[in-house]
Please model this.
Amino acid sequence: MRDEDPPRAPGARGRRHNIFEAAAAHVAACAEDDDERSAETAEWVSPEALAFGINELACRAVIALARERGESPQAVARHLLNLPAPRGPSGTAGDNRLPAN
Model:
């Protein structure tokens, strides 16, 4: 390893992977129930870096789905996790649409 090269996560093999590449591959492997690939991709970067990348991927995915559906990110996130719609101050479900531009 050259002096200017950043260290790799323990167990990382082959070429270097960036945080977002690792997160995308890891989440895709989890979605496909590929435990072997999921374990491999988890070794590409540090656990903290992987968590950061997964969080960024989740945020971007929720925003994209919200725009596509014309709903709020909160409504989409709750729907994806099978959670009920949040209640407004009056006890009724709130407006889950994105505000008009």
About this structure: The mean pLDDT is 83. The helical segments are 19-31, 35-42, 47-69, 73-80. Residues 3 and 40 are 26 Å apart (CA to CA). The longest helix spans residues 47-69.
